[in-house]
Amino acid sequence: MATLVTFHAHPDDECIACGGVMRKAADEGHRVVLVVATRGENGEVPDGFLAEDEPLWRRRVAETHAAAEILGAERVEFLGYVDSGMMGTPANDAPGSFWTAPVEDAAQKLAAILRDESADVLTVYDDNGGYGHPDHIQVHRVGMRAAELAGTPRVYQHTINRDHMLRGMREFAAANEDPGFELPDIENETGFGKPEAVITAAVDVSAFVDHKRRAMRAHASQISEQSFFLAMPDDGFRVAFGTEWFIREGQGPGITETDLMAGL
């Protein structure tokens, strides 16, 4: 058996991006380790959701541990950086923000975990962080460098299959005049995801979508029942989130892998 380390920017990113491959690896007997760069301090939360004087980060850390248990992670680590907020906001440059952290310093922290775990596989994000969030871009930079430092043999960059997502949303909108929730507007977002042609790995996680949704519900401070993720019908959710997509350097062109842990 092998060890999968999956590296993310904020609490809740793990279940959306890699919840399926995490649960799949765990069910197959592999060790799963979750590393999160920040505690999600700049997330939005409804008025009255938190207890009096309860900091958001504390709730999000607890939510992460609950989601990690659902997804089969045996170890959860936070690197200790501060959520940098959305691109172009003052939070980007706040003291301790992940966006301003020297890549080499952060990579050394992650590499220490990779070495400690003798990690066989690491997941990070693509070079635009999926959709341009500064902390997600930094996950790519830090993760790729950490893998070099630790000698981690397999590195997969999680991405969003833009073509697949657009096809599914168009089909869903055509079949549902009033879906009852707001679909994300990605039609004109050129920085959202990657074209199908550059993706090299597609992992069928349809058997684990219930785990993904349960893990999303564990992040109740950020993912409400009215959100796109949870309000979507089960069939639509399976189409949208039943495959997780990755890019691995040296693979392709086209989909050449369907299991991150194959042969390990």
In the sheet with the most strands, the strands line up as 3-2-1-4-5-7-6
- Termini separation: 6 Å
What would CATH call the architecture?
Answer: 3-Layer(aba) Sandwich
Q: Regions with pLDDT < 50 over 5+ consecutive residues?
A: none
Under CATH at level 1, the class stands as: Alpha Beta
The string of secondary-structure elements, in order, is EHEHEHEHEHEHHHE
User: Which term fits the overall shape?
Assistant: globular
Could you characterize what this model shows?
- There is one protein chain.
- This protein has 264 residues and is α/β, with parallel strands linked by helices.
- The chain has a single domain (3-247), classed as LmbE-like (Rossmann fold, 3-Layer(aba) Sandwich), CATH 3.40.50.
- Helices cover 38% and strands 16% of the residues.
- The chain has eight helices and seven strands; from the N terminus they run βαβαβαβαβαβαααβ.
- The chain has helices at 13-27, 56-71, 103-117, 134-150, 162-175, 209-218, 228-231, 234-241, and strands spanning 3-8, 31-38, 75-81, 121-125, 154-159, 201-204, 243-247.
- The protein has a seven-stranded mixed β-sheet with strand order 3-2-1-4-5-7-6, sandwiched between helices.
- Strand 4, helix 4 and strand 5 (154-159) form a beta-alpha-beta unit.
- Helix 2 (56-71) runs antiparallel to helix 6 (209-218).
- The chain is globular, with a radius of gyration of 18 Å.
- It starts with a strand and ends in a 17-residue tail after the last strand.
